[in-house]
Specification:
- This protein is an alpha/beta fold.
- It has eight helices and nine strands.
- The two termini are 34 Å apart.
């Protein structure tokens, strides 16, 4: 049993280049040998990742978790009028968080663990050459056509029915009801909906220069874990996202809940206690570059 009693957790403030103040936690358990930046999925607060962060810290990492602007403790008083757009999370927030982690462990290699959009947006992050490798969990295109078909009706209703109603009534997507995450800024939702209506997802808006990006500059290898019962980040959805990174080595690993000693994992369950077998695989990759034997080049 891994002893996490020595792990220290420090609350940190992260200031972005455009002046936003983000809330984060830095986990350390001694003399860190590697830095791990954990970037959240859409609408997930950083507390969801505290268990895996402590696990990595106890193994010898400095781990930074943080809330994207508009989420959790980084939420403004006026969410509807915040002007937050989806790519801001990658362009500004992920970049600032990586810089803050580098300050905490100036002599250690830096890695990232992205959940869902936290992996999709690696290509918006600056300082690509500072990262040694990336791990993705539950990362896949938001296009509804590559998700499991049982999930499609509720997704389409969320995009065009429930979401439209919430924007008209509240000016943003509130927490609760059909949406199980934190409240979402309106432009985050609109951009997410626009991309998710097409197989090409965000690519047209990268090509036409709408959003500055660094997808073609990502050279650090990526290993992506797909959970077989995840209705959103399917193998096809994950492969689509990996194709957005043309200039790096990519591997895809599929895990069933049974492989992890669980009955259900889904889109966000990988970070709950009880899934340490997955965390060990992630640690081997992030700390040493060791892939599971079943990893397939993508």
């Amino acid at each position: 049993m891994l002893d996490i009693s020595t792990v220290q957790v420090e609350e940190v403030a992260i200031k972005t280049e455009d002046g936003w103040l983000l809330s984060g936690n830095l986990f350390q358990g001694g003399d860190p040998q590697v830095g791990v930046l954990i970037s959240a999925g859409t609408g997930f607060p950083r507390r969801i990742y505290r268990h895996v962060a402590a696990y990595f810290a106890a193994r010898g990492a400095a781990v930074l978790t943080y809330d994207f602007r508009g989420i959790g403790d980084s939420k403004p008083a006026d969410l509807a009028g915040s002007g937050i757009d989806y790519p801001d999370w990658g362009r500004h927030d992920m970049s600032a968080a990586l810089h803050r982690l580098a300050e905490a462990v100036p002599n250690a290699p830096l890695t990232t663990l992205g959940h869902s959009i936290g992996g999709q947006f690696v290509g918006f992050m600056e300082a690509q050459s500072d990262v040694e490798r990336h791990a993705f969990v539950g990362v896949g295109s938001g296009y509804w056509g590559v998700h499991k078909w049982r999930n499609v009706p509720i997704e389409l209703f969320f995009w065009w029915g429930y979401g439209s109603y919430c924007l008209a009534r509240f000016g943003f997507i509130p927490a609760g009801g059909l949406w199980g995450g934190e409240a979402l800024p309106p432009d985050v939702f609109k951009t997410w909906r626009r991309w998710s209506a097409r197989r090409s997802y965000l690519l047209p808006e990268l090509a036409d220069g709408r959003y500055p990006h660094h997808f073609d500059k990502v050279e650090a290898p990526i290993s992506a874990w797909v959970l077989s019962d995840d209705p959103i980040a399917t193998e096809t959805a994950c492969s689509d996202t990996l194709s957005h990174y043309p200039n790096c080595q990519k591997h895809l690993v599929v895990r069933r809940p049974f492989d992890l000693g669980s009955k259900k994992v889904g889109h966000d369950g990988a970070f709950r206690k009880g899934h340490e077998p997955l965390w060990e695989e992630l640690w081997d990759w992030l700390s040493c570059g060791i892939l599971p034997t079943s990893a397939q080049a993508n």
